[in-house]
Amino acid sequence: MQVFKTFFNIAKSHMTKAIIYIIIFFSICLAMSKTAKKEKEANFTASSINICVFDKDNSKASKALIKYLSKYHTLTTDLKNVKDSYLQDSLYYAKFQYILTINKGYEDSILKKDGQDSLSHTTLSDTMSTVYATGQIDRYISSVRMYLAGGYDLNTALSKSSKLYDNKNYITSKDYSGNKKSTSNFFYYFQFYPYILLSILIMCMAPILVSFNSKGVKQRTACSSLKPLSKNFQLFGASIIYSLVIWLIFMLASMVVFSPKEFFSKTGLLACLNSFSFLIFSITITLIIGCFNLRDSKLSMVSNIVTLGMSFLCGIFVPQWYLGEKVLSVARFLPAYWYIKNNNMLAGFSSTPVSYSSFFTNLSIQLLFALTMLVMFIALNRQMKRE
Known about the structure:
mainly alpha
């Protein structure tokens, strides 16, 4: 077991660096999880915009519409005989974001079931705020017409419609996933786990493996009585134990930071199992990287390519529902995609409820990736032995 012991002797010399990386990445993981939760739970708030209104109808209905809009936006209604160029400049320089014209016959069109609204508007571009303002106007007019169709007179219909959205808490959220812990930082913590784990293993464990695969050490090992199979077996076993220690640190830390009750819940244990399957893949890909005689600067470059590329493509940094179909079709060939699918399902972020068949299918795909990496590692070792 000389190789096994030597592995951990070398690991001792990298202990300080490993501890620093673990603390830094753990802090980043917690910070990112808290930030992601705040963004996820941010309440919807409507924004106020500057609207210029031209009331050419000057009727009871048009004045009621202006009064309704003044509750939500800043209105300018006293402009008379202005040129079109002035209005265009006002839009361009953001003095107004929305110019509304209430044409003559607006009230008559409200009273007629098949009439036109006799409204027109101009904006510099369709932003979320301007589209929302148009939606407000459309909902208000639809409400007036519904009250009129229900037998109310015009005054009552205008009065009731103006109060329709006075309650600012009319937007509520419901969780139908059956997972009461869906908004917990616990699952956001596991969302960033693949990036953290891969970074630590490549930067801390790969240098140990590189030292065994340097040209001089390999030549001396080849001259000894140690069989290549025994050497690889000891390296693989030492790598597993080293990685398991790091994994256990993160699991224990999550249990302490969040709560043992949440950690040992059904979904919490499934999240840990999901992280363990990704750990196996991370070990195998680190073994492959360790086969090459790379210096720390090159290892850092490889780490960034692997971790950041997988994080952006698979939905670690950018949620999967924001990614396009072409990006997701590429991401399916990476294990982190299936890891995030499981985490989203457990956290209640997915449109599908928690399904054990889907969960273990995604888990199996991750293990298949790990098996593929292991086969590549064995083939690469044989090829290097021949050389």
